Amino acid sequence: MRQGPSVGYSAGAGRPHVIQPTAYRSAAGGPGVKCCCCTCCTCVNLNFLRTKPGMIKAAELILSSICLTLVLDFGLPYSSTMGEAFTVFLVTTCACLLVVCLLLFCYIISANSFNLIRSSVLETVFNSLACALYLTSSSYLSFAVFTWLKPGYLILPQYAVYPAMSAAYILGLVLGIVHGADAWISYKHLTGRPSM
């Protein structure tokens, strides 16, 4: 059953503002999960994960989860040693992971939400901000790790917090680059130009 366009009234002009979502179609088939001869859970659009934006969002989710696990498991006992660099990186990782989870959930549950959200400035602004936050907080954390944790690692080779936090800030730099690429792709989608 096809629904008509959404209509909203703006307070200033008195005329309706029509928002026409284009249905997001992928080459992999219809929505839902294929089970033998039938399709279950047709509200779920797992085909989104097979597209380039879906793979980028999944990569952001996985890398952010690894960063958060490393920071909480290894860095939390040494948070006072690293100072506010640890706190800034932890807040950046948690906030970006939350928004990526929310966006990925919306894209998987509703096929039209991808075009509606991507057509707005939300994705471009969020990914640009996430890129800047990850790059700055990872740089700050790398300074704190080299300054405060490396001397302990040189004395005690089993000092596991140094390699773990080094991996965390390197993954943070990678996440900054991935969010930057996603911001560029979102911007190109927003302006109507074809992506790479």
From TrEMBL:
It holds the Pfam family MARVEL. The chain crosses the membrane at residues 58-79, 85-109, 121-146, 166-187. Residues 48-191 form the MARVEL domain. It is found in: Membrane. It is a multi-pass membrane protein. GO terms for cellular component: membrane. Keywords: Membrane, Transmembrane, Transmembrane helix. Its main location: membrane. It comes from the Eukaryota. This is Protein singles bar.
